[in-house]
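Page 37, continued from 36.
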C-alpha cells in the first residue's frame, strides 16, 4: 500500500506476551516512557522536544489506521502487528505527576518547570537589564505551564506569512487545522449571556484532542472594564478566533470543561495520555537533552542525547527524519551545535559546517509585556485580590471547584476574563504618521552591524509587511486587560525590533546568548506608547472611574510626557511573554530563511523544524492555538510526503 512499508515492515513486531523485533529488540505493548538503556534500536522519526508541536506530531504520526494485529502463517500462535511508523520523542524536562499548580487554573502559582538558570544578555533597549528568559522544561512544553490563553492570529497574520514567500500558507489553509485540533465545549448559556461570552460556531471544532472553553466565573468589576473598553471605541467581537477584526472579547481558555472539572488540557494529556494505551510505536524519553543531530553527509540520520542532569551521550537513529521541536530558544541551539547555522559562528567554535545557514538563531521575536500598577478606592468585592485577602472566600471557591460547580478557581490566577486586542488605529489616530515615519527609516539601522545580507533582506520584507499592517484595521499590535486586581496588563504584539539566539560554547547544556533586543527600534516605543495611553484613556472612563483607580508609581499621573512614560517603560517592560519565536524562520533562503514551506531545513535532508521557531513573524494572538494547528498541519504534510495517509 505504501511504497516504503516493506522496508519498515516488522520494525515493531508484537507477539502475544513478549514483544520481540526482528533484531531481537523488545518493545512494549503500549506507548511508553522509555529508559535510555532500552533505546538500542531505530525509529522512523525522532522528535527533539516534547512540547506542543512535538507531541501533536508524535500522536498524529503514530496513528496508523492500517496497523493491525496479524496472525502469521509461519507461527499460528504469534500475533504480529505491522506498524508503519515508530516515533521517539526526547524531552529535556521531567513528567509532571499532576500538581495542582499545573492542573488547576486558580492554583497557577507558584510556578513550576521553568528552564533553569536562563538569562538574557544585557538588554541595551531596556537600560541594560539582564532578564530571566522564561520557557518550559517539562513534558508538554509551554502548554504545561502557560496561562492557557487561546487566541488565534488574524487572517492577515497567516496570509502575511504566505506573502513572505510561503505558498500554501494562509488563514484558509490553517483554519481546518485549528478546527481539527480542538474540542470546544460551549459554556452554560445563561452564564455566557451574563459574561458576554460569544463565539462563532463556524470556526470552532468539536472533535479534536485539545479541550477548550471559558472559565465558569467572572468577578463583578470585569463588567466595568468591559464597558470602559467599549466606551473608548473597541468593538465587541463575536469570536477572537475567527480571523476577523480585533476588539474586546471574553478570554477563551485551554481548559477541559467537559465534566465541570475545569482542568488544564495540555499536550501531555491531549496528545500522549489520550492515545498511549493503543500506541506501542510511540515512545517518550524524558529528562534527556538532545545535544546534536547526527549526519551522514548532509542527511540527518539520528541524534545524540544526554541526561539533562549531565552525563554521557547516547545515540538514537531515525530512518526517515529528525524533527526539531525544542522551542525558539533551543531549536537554533541544536542546529548550531550540529553544524547548521552561520558559518562564522560555527567556525569560531570549531564546529564543522554541515550547512551554512546565516538565518539560524536570527530573527528572534517575542511580545513584550508591561504591568501598570493600580490601587482602587472603590473596587468591587470579590475581585482577584480576594483570593489572597479572604481565606473564607478562597476556601469556599476551592470547595465549589472540587465539587465541579462554577468557581473563581476556573480562572487562571493573575489573568483577566476579558481582554482587548487593538489594531494600531484602535490605539491612536496617529497610526498613519507612525507607519510613514517607520517607512522613512533605514531597516539596516534596526539590525546589528554585520548582519548577513540575506537576513537583512528578509527583515526588509517583514518590515514592509508590518508597516502595511499598521494601517490595517484587521490585525492587532497590542492588548490591554485588567484582571480586577492591582495591575493592568499592556502588551505589545508586533515589534519591529529583532533579536538573536547564538551558542557561545559547544557545551549542549550551556545557555546560549539570548538577546531579545527589545526596544532597539525606536518605532516600537511609539507603538507601545500609543497602547499605554489607550489603557490610560480606558481607566479614565466613567465605568472605571466608578472603582476609584489610582495609577501607581513608578507610573502615576505626574508621568505625562512621552519621554517620561518611555523612561519608566524601559525600567519595567519585560521583553518576553514567553512567546519567543521565529529563530529558524520559514522564508526563502535568499531572505535569510532556514526552512521551506514544508518546514524542511535548507541544505540538508531528513530534517525539519516543527516548533514555533519556524514562524517568520509573531501573530496578533497568543502562540498556543497556532502551534496546535501547525502541528496538525505538519503531520499531514509529512504523511502525504511518505504516503502514510
Ligand atoms: C510561562 C508561560 C506562559 C505562557 N502563556 C501562554 C498563554 O497563555 N497562551 C499562549 O498561547 N501561549 C503562552 N505561552 C507560550 C506557549 O506556551 C509557547 O509559545 C508554545 O508552547 C510553543 O510551542 P512549541 O511546540 O514551539 O514549544 P514548547 O511547547 O515550548 O516545547 C519545547 C519543548 O522542547 C524541550 N526541549 C528544549 N530543548 C531541548 C533539547 N535540546 N532536547 C530535548 N528537549 C528539548 C523543552 O523542554 C520543551 O518541553 C506561554 C509560555 C510560558 C512558558
Ligand atoms: C540502526 O541504524 C544504524 C544506522 O543506520 C545501523 O548501523 C544499526 O544497525 C541499526 N540498528 C538496529 C538495531 O536496527
Ligand atoms: C548599556 O551598555 C552599553 C554598553 O556597555 C553602554 O554603551 C550604554 O551606555 C549602557 N546604557 C545604559 C542606559 O546604561
Ligand atoms: C467534546 O466535548 C463534548 C462536551 O462539550 C463531549 O461530550 C465530547 O465527548 C468531546 N469530544 C471529544 C472528542 O473530546
Ligand atoms: C456585557 O455587555 C453589556 C452590553 O454592552 C454590558 O451592559 C454589561 O455590563 C457587560 N457585562 C460584562 C460582564 O462584561
Ligand atoms: C561516561 O563514560 C566514561 C568513559 O567511557 C566512563 O568512564 C563513565 O563511567 C561514564 N559515566 C557515566 C555516568 O556513565
Ligand atoms: C470573605 O468571603 C466570604 C465568603 O465569600 C464573605 O462572606 C465575606 O463577606 C468576605 N469577607 C470580607 C471581609 O470581605
Ligand atoms: C511621579 O511621582 C512618583 C511618586 O511620587 C515619583 O516616584 C516619580 O519620580 C514621579 N515621576 C515624575 C516623572 O515626576
Amino acid at each position: 500500500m505504501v511504497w516504503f512499508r516493506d522496508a519498515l515492515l516488522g520494525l515493531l513486531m508484537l507477539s502475544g506476551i513478549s514483544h520481540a523485533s526482528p533484531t531481537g529488540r523488545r518493545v512494549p505493548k503500549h506507548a511508553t516512557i522509555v529508559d535510555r538503556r532500552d533505546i538500542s534500536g531505530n525509529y522512523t522519526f525522532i522528535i527533539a522536544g516534547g512540547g506542543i508541536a512535538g507531541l501533536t506530531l508524535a500522536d498524529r504520526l503514530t496513528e496508523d489506521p492500517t496497523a493491525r494485529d496479524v496472525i502469521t502463517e509461519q507461527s499460528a500462535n504469534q500475533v504480529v502487528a505491522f506498524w508503519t511508523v515508530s516515533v521517539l520523542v526526547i524531552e529535556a524536562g521531567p513528567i509532571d505527576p499532576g500538581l495542582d499548580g499545573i492542573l488547576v487554573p486558580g492554583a497557577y502559582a507558584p510556578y513550576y518547570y521553568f528552564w533553569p538558570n536562563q538569562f538574557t544578555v544585557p538588554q541595551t533597549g531596556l537600560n541594560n537589564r539582564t532578564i530571566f528568559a522564561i520557557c518550559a522544561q517539562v513534558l508538554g512544553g509551554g502548554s504545561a505551564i502557560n496561562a492557557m490563553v487561546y487566541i488565534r492570529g488574524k487572517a492577515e497574520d497567516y496570509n502575511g506569512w504566505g506573502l513572505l514567500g510561503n505558498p500554501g500558507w494562509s488563514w484558509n489553509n490553517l483554519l481546518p487545522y485549528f478546527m481539527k485540533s480542538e474540542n470546544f465545549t460551549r459554556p452554560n448559556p445563561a452564564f455566557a449571556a451574563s459574561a458576554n461570552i460569544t463565539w462563532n460556531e463556524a470556526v470552532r471544532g468539536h472533535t479534536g484532542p485539545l479541550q477548550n472553553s471559558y472559565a465558569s466565573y467572572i468577578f463583578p468589576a470585569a463588567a466595568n472594564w468591559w464597558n470602559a473598553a467599549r466606551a473608548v471605541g473597541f468593538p465587541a467581537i463575536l469570536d477572537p478566533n475567527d480571523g476577523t477584526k480585533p476588539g474586546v472579547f471574553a478570554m477563551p481558555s485551554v481548559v477541559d470543561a467537559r465534566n465541570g472539572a475545569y482542568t488544564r488540557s495540555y499536550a501531555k494529556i491531549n496528545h500522549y495520555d489520550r492515545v498511549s494505551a493503543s500506541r506501542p510505536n510511540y515512545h517518550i524519553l524524558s529528562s534527556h537533552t538532545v545535544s546534536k543531530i547526527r549526519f551522514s553527509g548532509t542527511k540527518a540520520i539520528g541524534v545524540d542525547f544526554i541526561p539533562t542532569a549531565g552525563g554521557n551521550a547516547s545515540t538514537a537513529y531515525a530512518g526517515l527524519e529528525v524533527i526539531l521541536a525544542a522551542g525558539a530558544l533551543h531549536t537554533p541551539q541544536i542546529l548550531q551545535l550540529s553544524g547548521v547555522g552561520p558559518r562564522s559562528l560555527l567556525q569560531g567554535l570549531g564546529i564543522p559546517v554541515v550547512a551554512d545557514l546565516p538565518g539560524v538563531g536570527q530573527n528572534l521575536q517575542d511580545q513584550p509585556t508591561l504591568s501598570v500598577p493600580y490601587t482602587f478606592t472603590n473596587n468591587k468585592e470579590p475581585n482577584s485580590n480576594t483570593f489572597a485577602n479572604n481565606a473564607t472566600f478562597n476556601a469556599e471557591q476551592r470547595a465549589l471547584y472540587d465539587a465541579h460547580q462554577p468557581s473563581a478557581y476556573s480562572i487562571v490566577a493573575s489573568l483577566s476574563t476579558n481582554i482587548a486586542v487593538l489594531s494600531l488605529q484602535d490605539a491612536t489616530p496617529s497610526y498613519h504618521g507612525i507607519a510613514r515615519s517607520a517607512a522613512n527609516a533605514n531597516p539596516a539601522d534596526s539590525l546589528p552591524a554585520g548582519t548577513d545580507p540575506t537576513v537583512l533582506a528578509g527583515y526588509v520584507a517583514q518590515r514592509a509587511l508590518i508597516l502595511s499592517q499598521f494601517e490595517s484595521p484587521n490585525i492587532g499590535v497590542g492588548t490591554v486587560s485588567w484582571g480586577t486586581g492591582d495591575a493592568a496588563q499592556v502588551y505589545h504584539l508586533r515589534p519591529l525590533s529583532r533579536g538573536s539566539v547564538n551558542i557561545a560554547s559547544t557545551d549542549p547544556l550551556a545557555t546560549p546568548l539570548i538577546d531579545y533586543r527589545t526596544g532597539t527600534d525606536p518605532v516600537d516605543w511609539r507603538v507601545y506608547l500609543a497602547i499605554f495611553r489607550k489603557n490610560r484613556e480606558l481607566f479614565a472612563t466613567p465605568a472605571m472611574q466608578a472603582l476609584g483607580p489610582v495609577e501607581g508609581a513608578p507610573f502615576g499621573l505626574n508621568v505625562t510626557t512621552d519621554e517620561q512614560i518611555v523612561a519608566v517603560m524601559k525600567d519595567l517592560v519585560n521583553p518576553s511573554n514567553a512567546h519567543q519565536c521565529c529563530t529558524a524562520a520559514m522564508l526563502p533562503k535568499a531572505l535569510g530563511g532556514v526552512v521551506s514551506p514544508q518546514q524542511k531545513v535548507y541544505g540538508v535532508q531528513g530534517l525539519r523544524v516543527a516548533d514555533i521557531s519556524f514562524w517568520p513573524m509573531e501573530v496578533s494572538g497568543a502562540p498556543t492555538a497556532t502551534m496546535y494547528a501547525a502541528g496538525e498541519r505538519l503531520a499531514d504534510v509529512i504523511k502525504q510526503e511518505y504516503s502514510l495517509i
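Residues 195-196, 218, 222-223, 226-227, 230 surround 2-acetamido-2-deoxy-beta-D-glucopyranose (ligand 5) (CB under 6 Å). Flag for discussion at group meeting. The longest helix spans residues 623-641.
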